[in-house]
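Tutorial handout. Part one gives the primary structure; part two gives the three-dimensional structure as tokens.
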Amino acid sequence: MIERYSISPMKEIWSEEEKFKRWLEVEIAVVKAYEKLGVAPKGTASKILKKAVVDVERIKEVEKVVDHDVIAFIKSVTENMGDEAKYFHMGLTSSDVIDTALGLTLKKVVKIILEALEKFIDSLKNLAITHKYTPTVGRTHGVHAEPTSFGLKVLSWYSEALRNHKRLKSALSEVSVMKISGAVGNYANISPEVEKIVAEILDLEVEKVSTQIVPRDRIANLLSVFSLIAAGIERIALEIRLLQRTEVLELQEPFKKGQRGSSAMPHKKNPILCERLCGMARLLRSYSQAAFENIALWHERDISHSSVERVILPDATNIIYYMLIKADYLIKNLVVNTDRMKESFEISHNLVFSQRVMLKLLEKGLSREEAYLIVQKNAMKSWNERKDFRQILKTDPEILKFLDINDIDELFNIDYYLRNVDEVFKRFGL
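Part two.
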């Protein structure tokens, strides 16, 4: 987790001090459960809480000796306690504390990410509505295809983001879990009733059957969803990059006052934000793969997943949050050059209307093969001679046998291609 891409409040949540505070929160919840069940005297939890001190430097100092972070935490926090210390961590294994605290952490961070995603979705919706009827050239294989609506393009991004919102809500539920079930998950030294009470206190769901840890498919699923969200942002960023090229320049990412694009070339306005987002999407996909590797562990548990999660969970949550904040800024401030979009039709000499010409010839009684060959002949002439496709059609005797000049002009009406845009928007209640 590097400072450059860490944004508040996400970065603070993963600090060492906050981690140990959540561990303490879990330990206190267990003692409260013991109180409720009559195992510990009333008031034990409050006494522990008053005397417990989370001192990160002291914990690190102890860990140098014991080489175990949870033991170091326990020794440090209980140094100034009296008899009540015996109820601290009683009947627990380290992963009871770590994984339950992780459930608290993930529930908190995913809610923050969910809010950021919702803002991003709202920005996509507004952009789609704004450009609902803005004509633009649709492209397939990077080549001009047919006219479409820029708003429809954005609506596709919006639709994908809605699917990811649904996925993230489901993933939030899956990771908001805990376990207080002992060393191998069989409750040998602690009652399931304790776990149930702790779950109520912490507002988490109980893992129905655990080993020493909460099964890691839950985390793999979460990082898969992060990767899908990132891929959706990457899809948008890549499209903007392609449409920001000098010879296209239909879109442009925001360029702030005082910003500089190149140390050598003062004229440059590079799509650096979009490129950064594309790179981050790659990184998240690699973290997702690492999370999948963490699912299969030896028997009831080994710790090969631990070192991985110490890196990928803070990094992945920070990265996806950063991506959503920046993607929202990108969409809110995107420069849409509608004039260039109109000019793009001329770049390919209006050849994007070829299918409609062919279909009109079919209506006049020609076979598909006959119509295709006549239109293709004129289209190739337009390409080769760099002349307007419409004007070439008006000089072709074969075409004029079936279509008059007005018929031809009508075939180049962009409104025809936007006539069903409303219907698609209605599917989203827009």
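Part three, for discussion. The beta strands are 135-140, 143-149, 177-178, 205-206, 251-252, 335-336. The longest strand covers residues 143-149.
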